[in-house]
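Handoff note, outgoing to incoming analyst
You'll be picking up this chain. Sequence as last confirmed:
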Amino acid sequence: MTPDPWWAFALDPDTRADADANRLRDEHGAPLVNPPGPGGRLGLDYAGYLGLGELLGAGTPSSSVPDERAFVIVHQLCEVVFKQMTFDLAIVTATFERLLGLPEAERVALTLAEGEVDDPDSEAAACWRPAITASNRLRHAARRLLPPIMELMGTGAADDVLFSRVEFAHFRAHLVPSSGFQAAQLRLVQRALGKGPLLDGLRVFPGENLSHHYAGAPCGHVALADPLVLQSGAELASPPETHPSHRAGRLDTVAHALLSALPRLGDDLPPPPAVRRIHAADVDRAVDRFRATLGLSADVAADAEAAESAVDDFRRDLEAAADAENERRDGLDAARAGAYYLQARAPKSALAHILARVAATDDALHSPTDGTFLTVHRRTVRRHVADDSGTGGGGMPYLVTSQRYLLPLFPALVAWQDLEL
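Most recent structure output, in case you need it:
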C-alpha cells in the first residue's frame, strides 16, 4: 500500500463493497486501524482515530493576545478544508482516468448514464459514486464552508465583533514575513481548476520582503508558486509526479481529455461555438491594473524605474501565458464538441453533474461577486488592515489584481463553459 494511508483509496466498486478487501493493512497484513488484540478485543477510541493529539497541538501563537488563537484556528480550518478539496479533486481525476482506460462502448455508456447516486442496484451509480460525492463536496466546501470560516474574523449576530482589529494590530507585526499568499494547498486547488499559468510563470508578487528575510538578497516580482513565496509549501503546490496529490492538479487536463473522447452531435445540427480566447484587451486591462498596483498610475511609486521594469516583465509574462493558453484552447475542438454533445444529449448524466460542480467550485472560490471565498477573504483583510501592505509584501492591491483581472482569464473547464443550448 502507499506509504500515506490517506491516499490509499479504491475506485473499484467490488473492492469498496468488500469489507475485507477495502480494509487498509500494515506490512504484516494486520488492520492498520483498530487491529484486534488478545481475545479479539478492540481498542480504537475517538481521539486516536482522528489523531487529535497532533491535530489539537498544531500551531504555536506568537503572542499572549487572546484573539490570536482565533486567527490561528481560522487559517487552520481553511487548510483542513483545502486538504479535503485536494483529495476530492484527485478522486474526480482518478475516476476520469479510469473511464479513459475503458473500451469505447463501455466508456460512452457510463458517461451518458443517469440515475440516483445511492441506487444500490446500479452499476453506473457504483462507478460514479465516489466522484459524484467528491464533486458535491467541492462545491459545498467552496460555497458553504470556506466563506463562513473567514467570517469568524468578522462580525456575528447583532453586529457582534468576533475578532478585534485593535487586538490584531497588537500581534500582526510578529508574523512577518509569513503571508496568506503562501497557502500552498490553495495553489494546488487552483492548479486543478486551470489556473496553472498564473502560478508558474507570471511575475506578479513583490518578492522584496520575502527575499530580504528568507534569502538576505534583493529580488523583484516573482510568480505565486515560486519557492521563494511558498517556502516549505512549494512541493504541496506543485507536487512531483510520484506523489498521489499530483493527480489532483491534473483535473482540468484529464477532464478535457475525457470530453474529447465523447461522441459528436449529428452533422445536421449547428456546431458548438468556439472556446473563448484571451484577447489583447484582456491583457491590456490587467497590465493597466498592475501599473496602478505599483503606484505608477498615480505617480506615487517609490522607485518608478524598478516599477516600470516590473510592469514590462509582467506584460511579457502575461502575453506569453495568454499565447500558450490560446494555443491550448485552439486544440480543444474535440473537447468542445464532446461537451456540446453531453449537454445536449445527457444533461442529467453523472458526468455532466460532476463537471457542473467543478465549474461551480471555481466560481465559488474565485469570482469577484459577493459571497465567494476570495471576496469574503478580501473584505476581511480590508476590515482589519488599515494600510495596503501585507505581512509578506503583497496586500490588498495584489488581492484585487488577482481576483478581478487575472483569475477570470483562466476559468476551469473552458471547453465546458459558455455553451448555450
